[in-house]
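Now produce a polypeptide, keeping tokens residue-aligned:
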Amino acid sequence: MPLMTTSRGPAHWTETASPADAPPVVLIHGLGGDATFWVAEQHALADRFRVLAVDLRGSGKTPGGTAPFSIEDLAQDVLAIMDAAGIDAAHVVGFSMGGTVAQALALAAPQRVRSLVLAATFAHTGTQAELFLKAIGAVYANGATPKQIFELVLPWLFSDRFLSSPAAAPYLDYPESADDEQDRDDWLRLLQAMLAFDGRPALSRLGMPTLVIGGDEDRLAPQEGVHALVAGLSQATLCMLPGGHLMNVESPQRFADALATHFVAHASTAEFRPAMPA
């Protein structure tokens, strides 16, 4: 299934060439990613859903500007993409940092969210991950190369069992083309926005059906944070998959199947529930 590339103003996204009446799905990538993060999921879901993968501000082909921004600003950007794409409401999937954007979007416009999927994410960055990410940000700001950052972050992205297997080989080498993929300042602004986000007080106000997906060896979004998400949401289902932070790479079929099963189970707009007052 070919992917179509679309831009409206500064915003950029890709989408599957699915039937016009296919239920829409919006995919939001994490820090350091872009719309291409979701190519496997777009192909896996294309026969049943219209699947959009966005480039967040400062990622992929969407420019970042020069001013700081918040996770809430990124959520508004995604809503603007949904408007431009003619989507009233969609299943919204956020991965890692994208999960914080998905939470902010669902809080700001619950009527636009048919269902929610929060994968490898958190309502607030955990202490261990925060210390690690702040250190990575400082090293990068002080002149480390993208290749050096890749080598520092890589062990945190996968489980030990995956890294020690032959299947990990394609993911261990730094792609030289990545040097030009994302501006250093854009990455740092995205990092600061993620670290500043705290969605814990608002979790109970998210009333839409939500699937929370965690990796059983994830160090960046550990199981404690995953279980805290489930406990704080009013309509949450937990799905734990084998793998580290990028459990979608380690368990691709199970990840795609979990998404599709959730979307089909919550296809009716009758399940929409507005956010509760603060």
